[in-house]
Design brief:
- The protein is of the alpha+beta class and 486 residues long.
- It folds into 3 domains: 80 residues, Immunoglobulin-like; 310 residues, Purple Acid Phosphatase, chain A, domain 2 (4-Layer Sandwich), CATH 3.60.21; 47 residues, no CATH class.
- The protein contains 9 helices and 24 strands.
- Strand 2 and strand 3 form a beta hairpin.
């Protein structure tokens, strides 16, 4: 008799849970939202008003959700991992209990798995900084990007900290991120956040900040890169792009010799991807609402992080905190206060634009050290502050609400700052490796020895280098026609 009770009790408990679910009206309060996307897996999370079991159905079409993952444990915080997925593949999905569908099963609920590591694929990335104001400002920035993107799928998006003002409480995250804010993006594109100084709710004791409960972040290298062992900082890979998220908010992490810097050096030593993008909250350069010459968090990140990153071949560094937009030249080796900037530290002092001074170029594809990086402050996705805007590495600034859009295709990165009115207020291009034309070759152009004309069929990397070499050699470019002479 005791033996039979041991057998039937779990069955009875399961039936009791299912009966309870049929008697209660369940409602999704948060999500669904996507986390830790890889070529073969993804995490789907949501919150319900009452405890229920968890189920995700998924498949190649909204009416073909033949695969199912479920969890019989009853909870209000649902976290389901889908595994065994195909890379670079679109899946539709629905969420619910073991008995009831609660959301999805339509054309809006889908995700696209990332490409195999190292595979180049056109990739769209959306970047928000200090967006957690819960106001119309943030919604206007959001809508401006949605209108800009139109039908282009956002492969992933980043939040650069201060994701929920004023203290990062669970209730503030609900309003600033989930409720009537970014639902349309959360259900179809994986969000990768970093911690801001307004996200460290000190009233959430015991336990970590709500930020760490709300987001699922890779600790064991499951999304590519090296295991960090913590959600405080991490890395992930999307195709041929290696992302590194650092923590600039918890001060002890910035001290020399701590685990984050050791991990970062080891992380970069294993990186072999075409592009390396790093991001955190406090900007290493800038004189917007915050001054990188006087504030400890900014100084520490410049002095500690940048030498490691630039030795590891970083291409782009993103930060928030200052509520404005600032953008650097292509630079390398500047780790001290702004008056110490030397000409040798500016690799390209142009505007980085194909239709301007010429795009920024790096000779090597991959992770060659000290070929230059661009530094971007994007902290105006929810509010705008003024500043002196006179940091010598930051020639471009905008006192405007907005967000940053990255499009990476092969060896080319295009960045745009989209203001809340939809106007592109800044843009630049960075090209790495591939076909190159030297300044010496371009300087051979003269009107006496024409050998041919190449029009729009000229490969774009060559167009890029022609423009750059032309600028440095003092030669002439006109329209879409290139005249080659010897």
């Amino acid at each position: 008799m005791p033996y039979s009770r041991r057998i039937y009790f779990p069955i009875f408990l399961t039936l009791l849970i299912l009966v309870s679910e049929t008697l209660q009206a369940q409602q999704v309060l948060r999500g669904p939202y996507l986390q830790i996307g890889t070529p073969n897996s993804i995490v789907i999370r949501w919150r319900t008003d009452v405890s229920t079991t968890s189920r995700v159905e998924f498949g190649p079409a909204p009416d073909e959700l033949a695969s199912t993952v479920h969890n019989s444990a009853s909870t209000t915080e649902h976290e389901v991992s889908l595994t065994g997925l195909n890379p670079n593949t679109k899946y539709f999905y629905s969420i619910g209990t073991q008995l009831t569908n609660l959301a999805g099963g339509d054309s809006n609920h889908f995700f696209v798995t990332s490409p195999p590591p190292g595979t180049a694929k056109p990739t769209r990335i959306w970047i928000l900084g200090d967006s957690g104001t819960k106001t119309g400002n943030a919604r206007r920035v959001r809508d401006a990007y949605y209108n800009f993107a139109v039908d282009t799928y956002t492969d992933l998006w980043l939040m650069l900290g201060d994701n929920a003002y004023e203290s990062g409480s669970d209730e503030e995250f609900q309003e600033a991120v989930f409720e009537n804010m970014y639902e349309d993006m959360l259900i179809k594109s994986v969000l990768w956040p970093t911690l801001g100084n307004h996200d460290d709710d000190t009233d959430s004791s015991p336990g970590p900040y709500p930020y760490y409960d709300i987001f699922s972040l890779p600790t064991n290298g499951q999304a590519g890169g090296l295991a960090s062992g913590t959600e405080k900082y991490y890395s992930f890979v999307h195709g041929n792009i290696h992302f590194i998220c650092l923590n600039s908010t918890e001060d002890y992490l910035q001290e020399a010799g701590n685990a984050m810097w050791i991990w970062l050096e080891e992380e970069l030593a294993t990186n072999d991807k075409d592009w390396t993008i790093a991001y955190w909250h406090h900007p290493p350069y800038g004189k917007g609402g915050h001054n990188s010459d006087t504030e400890d968090d900014l100084i520490e990140m410049r002095e500690r992080a940048l030498p490691i990153l630039e030795s590891g071949g970083v291409d782009l560094v993103l930060a928030g905190h200052s509520h404005s937009y600032e953008r650097s030249y292509l630079i390398d080796g500047h780790y001290d206060l702004s008056p110490t900037l030397a000409d040798s530290m500016i690799i390209d002092d142009g505007d980085g634009r194909l239709d301007g001074d010429g795009v920024y170029t790096k000779p090597s594809s991959g992770t060659a050290p000290h070929e230059g990086a661009v530094y971007v402050v994007c902290g105006s996705s929810g509010k705008v502050d003024s500043g002196t805007f006179d940091h010598p590495v930051m020639p471009i600034y905008r006192e405007a609400l907005g967000s940053v859009v990255l499009d990476i295709d092969g060896n080319q990165l295009d960045a745009k700052f989209i203001a809340s009115d939809g106007v592109v207020q800044d843009y630049f291009t960075l090209v790495k490796g591939d076909a190159r034309v030297s300044a010496t070759e371009i300087s051979k152009i003269s009107g006496d020895e024409q050998i041919g004309v190449i029009g729009d069929t000229l490969p774009e990397p060559l167009v890029v280098e022609v423009r750059n070499a032309q600028r440095h050699a003092g030669t002439r470019f006109s329209g879409n026609l290139f005249y080659f002479f010897w």
